[in-house]
Design brief:
Layout: H1 10-28, H2 32-58, H3 66-82, E1 87-89, E2 97-102, H4 124-136, E3 139-147, E4 156-165, H5 171-179
Antiparallel strand pairs: 1-2, 2-4, 3-4
Helix pairs in contact: 2-4
Length: about 180
């Protein structure tokens, strides 16, 4: 990770900015559910753009299955962007459903959620980022924040369930399909 001119890493800057963003949303929104939706949507938008940077910087090969995808997310993406490596566990029999456990969630450092925000899902932006990034590599994944370490939990648990794998349609195939009848 590169340091900014003031000695702060990109990750540290993101964490500090994120806390300020959530605090502002708490002032602007009346309901925690509205804050959660905004954080998820912002995360989704970040994820759709971040995936290009990730693929360029990581130089990884295409994953063959969802198990490999989850491992790359945990061991490469989280390490690259947040400096942590979650455990990937609790796989179902079909291999399309698992949990990411963050023993240390850097987003929650120095954070205390006021009692009036008991339904705030502080780390939900991570879910949106994952969903957006996976969408860009043609995976439709349901992602939920099951436990958040900022809420008296010792860990953050993110559940990922592969819903659908979209097929890549080659541009030439599309053109051939539509030009046949002309």
């Amino acid at each position: 990770m590169s340091k900014t001119s003031r000695g702060c890493t990109g990750t540290e800057l993101f964490i500090l900015t994120y806390g300020t963003l959530v605090a502002q949303l708490c002032e602007d929104c009346k309901k925690d559910e509205d804050i959660n939706k905004v954080l998820d949507k912002m995360g989704h938008n970040i994820g759709t753009r971040l995936v290009e940077d990730f693929l360029a910087r990581s130089n990884i090969a295409q994953c063959r299955n969802f198990y490999e995808t989850a491992e790359v997310i945990a061991k490469v993406a989280f390490k690259m962007y947040l400096g942590v490596t979650p455990r990937v566990t609790f796989w179902n029999q079909a291999g399309d459903d698992c949990s990411l456990f963050l023993e240390k969630n850097p987003l929650t450092d120095y954070v205390e959620i006021p009692d009036k925000h008991s339904n705030l899902l502080y780390s939900t932006m991570i879910c949106g980022i994952l969903r957006g990034a996976l969408k860009m590599v043609r995976l439709q994944v349901d992602i939920q924040l099951l436990q958040d370490s900022v809420k008296d939990n010792k860990i953050t648990e993110i559940r990922m369930k592969l819903m659908r794998r979209h097929k890549a349609v080659c541009k030439v195939e599309k053109e051939q399909k539509y030009s046949v009848g002309t």
